[in-house]
User: Which sequence fits this backbone?
């Protein structure tokens, strides 16, 4: 039987190659958008029909009322103060937590002596929630701004620290022995094996720490702030502006989500293999 050669045009082959990738790219986005839309529709039905059950929606504002509150806030001169005050506090506390937690975590993960020295006081303080630090932070720092940054730092510190320690401990010892056998010194092993091996766990800690930082900051702003999204939410509650309360909650969620996405994007730069795996 004679062999037959089937040829296809490059354009047709490219089209067939791109279609599956395009479907894989847009299908998750469509599912996520549909999920958010379904939640908004359910919220609208519950608030307009005053559903009462385990959760009472009688006083919960509708999505339309929240959108009106958002339009009013956008033209308010206080909007930028609320927004940028919270962002500056979060990233100031989070940045300090990143530097200290990663440095301590890498050292503790590699040195039993440092672990015995530093972990007992850290483990003693770890169960104390960031909210419980607020009264003492107000006494420790003369400026309320510094106390709120400190609360944010406390909220972000321990997730980053523990994930860094776990990441260092999870590095395959065979890789370490192999690098030593091939002539690498301890510094090269640390920089070329330990840190890259612990990086996925560190990124997970950064993402969790960012969420905790927003949670801690909002609580601190409710107590000690004069500007910020947390202060805006609490002020709306005291003034019985219920749509503004929901708006503040949504703003916190959006900022926390965008901050986590920013961390993941930066992590892709330092972990190109993670980006490669996501595209496959």
Assistant:
């Amino acid at each position: 039987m004679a062999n037959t050669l089937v040829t296809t045009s490059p354009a047709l082959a490219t089209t067939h190659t791109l279609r599956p990738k395009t479907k894989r790219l847009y299908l998750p986005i469509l599912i996520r958008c549909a999920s958010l839309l379904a939640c908004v529709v359910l919220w609208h039905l519950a608030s307009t029909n005053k559903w009462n059950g385990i959760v009472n929606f009688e006083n919960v504002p509708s999505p339309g009322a929240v959108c009106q509150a958002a339009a009013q806030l956008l033209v308010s001169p206080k909007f930028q103060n609320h927004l940028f005050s919270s962002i500056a506090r979060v990233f100031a506390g989070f940045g300090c937590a990143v530097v200290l937690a990663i440095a301590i975590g890498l050292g503790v993960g590699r040195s039993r002596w440092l672990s015995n020295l530093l972990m007992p006081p850290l483990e003693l303080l770890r169960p104390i929630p960031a909210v419980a630090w607020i009264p003492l932070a107000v006494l420790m720092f003369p400026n309320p701004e510094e106390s709120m940054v400190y609360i944010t730092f406390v909220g972000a510190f321990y997730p980053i620290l523990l994930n860094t320690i776990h990441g260092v401990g999870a590095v395959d010892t065979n890789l370490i022995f192999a690098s030593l056998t091939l002539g690498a010194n301890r510094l090269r092993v640390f920089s070329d094996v330990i840190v890259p091996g612990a990086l996925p766990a560190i990124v997970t800690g950064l993402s969790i720490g960012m969420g905790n930082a927003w949670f801690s900051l909002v609580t601190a702003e409710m107590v000690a702030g004069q500007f910020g999204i947390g202060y805006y939410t609490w002020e709306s509650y005291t003034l019985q502006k219920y749509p503004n309360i929901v708006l503040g909650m949504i703003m916190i969620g959006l900022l926390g989500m965008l901050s986590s996405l920013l961390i993941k994007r930066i992590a892709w730069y330092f972990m190109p293999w993670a980006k490669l795996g996501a595209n496959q």
